User: What shape does this take?
Amino acid sequence: MFFNEEFETLPRPALEALQLKRLQSTLERVYANVPFYKASFDAAGIKPSIVTHLQDLQKLPFTTKQDMRNSYPYGLFAAPMDEIVRIHASSGTTGKPTVVGYTRKDITTWSELMARSFVAAGAHKGDIIHNAYGYGLFTGGLGAHYGAELLGASVIPISGGNTKRQIMIMQDFGSTVLTCTPSYSLFMAEESQAEGVDFKNLKLRVGIFGAEPWSEAMRTEIENKLNLSAIDIYGLSEIMGPGVAIECIEAKRGLHIWEDHFIPEIINPLTGELLPEGEKGELVITTITKQGIPLIRYRTRDITSLTYEPCVCGRTHARIARMSGRSDDMLIIRGVNVFPSQIESVLVGIEGIEPHYMLIVDRLGTLDTLTVQVEISELLFSDEIKVLQALSRRVEKEIKDMLGVTCTAKLVEPKTIQRSEGKAQRVIDNRKLV
Amino acid sequence: MKVEQISIFIENKSGRLAEITRVLSDAGINIRALSLADTSDFGILRLIVNNGAKATEVLKEKGFTVSKTEVVAVEVPDRPGGLSAILQALDKDSINVEYMYAFVERCGGNAVIIFRFDETDKAIASLQAQNFNMLEGNRIYNM
Assistant: This one.
């Protein structure tokens, strides 16, 4: 099933011709309207007209989150403010938030791409979409909302929080599609037990989860606990919001990135050099239809790989692999690269361990230490010290085997690791780096 | 002959033991015997109380991880060699003690030792055969 069959299945040559045309017009537009791009192209000695093939894109300089901060709030907007109909901002955990603006056409495009994403995930007109992404400055809530309405589904704009009420409404309103972060879906499953509600008795069929990296093992866990098909969605406010890429329910192998609107590239995050198809690196996206804030070669910091192999669903758009972390989330512990998501997949592989964990990194003298806090569950609890110690040793050994890093596993009481109703905080880094 | 003991997981941070005893006190539960096994990161509090089911319920409500274990309470004469006699008897039948703790009975000249065995039934049979006196659960709960 498609939402826009013509564009979703456009043969590659036609798709690439369309990309080139749209890229060229975007470059002209930013060069003329955004002082930052004029300065950065001029500094590199480049005029937009040098781009005559898609491959020429790699000659252009990158745009970073720092560039967006430097232009705070509206400096990168390419449309006059009286054409901007919506403003969103990403959480400013480190400094000022990054601000994005949408023209009416941008909102229309976003709605369509989100509607395409819903259909790819197996949703359709007639579905009752329980949208538990946060509404507000965060793009998740409104992005999914507009797409669901365009699709013709019934949207419940419940937003995040108040989990008891979420569960009651899912049950009473007969929600068939759930949209939220993957960690929040598991939190709901946990709360539903306390409420005496069994997800097997709910009508949920599909869950569309994103806004934080998660693992294949976590998918299995969510599908078992929530009794639905779990689909990975990708997006970021700088590029648009949710709906930049999504898995198709037919394959659930990689997320189709809507290439008639975005050009993806994979680079080596250290050198900036372009990596070949299939190699893992940082995802870089160029928007080619956006009016409010078009971005050229934006460094997402998300680590993934790209494939152009044809997909069973019939979509011709390239697929990015499930995000395996962020280049700025990556922890280097005694020289070993560690992504929190890798530790998560080890933990969910151990029966009885809940995928709620906290990584604490510290430095004793010159040596980095990693402590993995894991919640004890009733299933795992033993009256005997040696059994619990064996469990800690097993967690330590499996992490060592999989990641090559030595850690200390620490069992903590259930439900003491902070639950998140948005993006989960998984790491506390206490190292004082000089 | 089996006595029901409840075990509670305690993270090694201040105030947890106080919280458990407060929850039990609020529920009117009396602790008959207790032992605390500890490691650097966590501990296991083992309790025999007058109402195990209720204690489990109120502790779980407060988010504690609780499990039930069967232990054996053996009466030991409160004099030199009392405990040694029991342990020798158990050793003769190759019975392994997982852990044990003692408390002194308020009346009479005997102490009570709580044992956790890996093979509880075998241990009970062995102790009975060798004429050791074991206390029924009800006697402990209502002591």
Chain A has two domains: 1-327, 331-429. Chain A touches chain B at residues 376-378, 381-385, 388-389, 392, 410-416 (CB under 8 Å).
